[in-house]
Amino acid sequence: MTSPSVDNAILQLKAEIIAQDWRLSPKRVKQLEAAFCCLLEHFKTRKAIHGMLVMADNVLRYVNTHGTSPPATIDFLKEAMAHVVSCHEELVDDASQEEAIFRSLFAHFSVLKEKIVQQSVVPVPVVAPSAPGLSSPPAVEQKKEGEGDPLSTLHQLIEEFKNSLLSIGDIGLPLCQSLDLWLHSPAVVALLTGEPLADCPAIEERPLAPRDFCPATHVRIVRVGGLSVALESDLIALVRPLKPSQTAHYLQVGSVPLGDFSRFWLKLSQLFSGSLSLVKERVLRELSLPLILPQGPEFSDAPPRVFSTLVVISHGNWHGALACEAVGEIDRIMSQVSKQQNGDLAGTAYLDDGEQFPLLDPLCMLRREGLLVMR
């Protein structure tokens, strides 16, 4: 049974979906903001719906600042609200269906952001002389055939630079994050678009979650799904470098047979730490763990073509195999954390050495895709 406030928020979304007037007045914007705030709290455990609301909230704030240009912003807002209402009114929660809807909506969100970037660069108009004797400003030089758009070229170079940063290991992530923050700062956005500084808030700008101190926790920095993240070391049961032929096979079948790691002079259970080391040997040899790929807006939608390291993660009786592009060699210490669920990320981990990384939520992934093994 939903609370009256949630019911009212859903009614507010329905009213906006069928509204004929697509011009959002300040009053309607405030009503929608309140509805989104209520629903974000209500759906915080249903990650796909929560992600749809986050995107809708971002677009709403952009519309409130810039108006309805491009018109696709209102189209997207109505589409996102319709999906949220539809998922809310389903009689049975279907996480896989909600995830599929989220992925489709996220693709539309990415297209919308690209449209906004393209339309924010306005060419200088050619003005006709207003009186005899007054010359026209020089016409904008026509692009030569095959010459690329400077802004598109700049974005391409930035993406290539970010990929290069991410490829150099653990030190590349904080540099890449700092670059992202700088690129989305109002001053840089104003410089790239030519808009006044005050009118250029970043579309994804959100208040930072408060930090909480936590007991000193060992974490390992792993690169998975195109992102370097912190993973609690106690949840790691095995780290194993793999050959490209092995990784290609595991990606194809979507699972990892633990019997592949058995050796005649060593018990398979001795390779693992945690609860897997307590599983009977004959069970381990027949066990295949699902290959888990993290989900959420921060991760790449496309599965990796190949990965270099397998990390077996365990939480109680839940187990799975994580396909990682890189794994840090040593444990790091996490002393602070800001909790803000976003797909398979639980928030931000702040390390003792001053670095910060997104914090992976293994339990979320294991409950969705992992294997339950009772000892």
Description:
With 375 residues, this protein is an alpha+beta fold. It has three domains: 1-119, Four Helix Bundle (Hemerythrin (Met), subunit A), CATH 1.20.120; 153-205, no CATH class; 212-372, no CATH class. It has helices at residues 4-18, 26-42, 47-66, 72-89, 95-119, 150-166, 172-183, 186-193, 244-253, 281-286, 362-369, and strands at residues 212-224, 227-232, 236-241, 255-257, 288-292, 309-315, 318-324, 326-327, 332-342, 345-351, 356-360, 371-372. The strands form two sheets. Strands 1, 2, 8, 9, 10 and 11 form a six-stranded antiparallel β-sheet that branches. Strands 3, 4, 5, 6, 7 and 12 form a six-stranded mixed β-sheet that branches. A hairpin with a 2-residue loop joins β9 and β10 (345-351). 28% of the residues are buried.
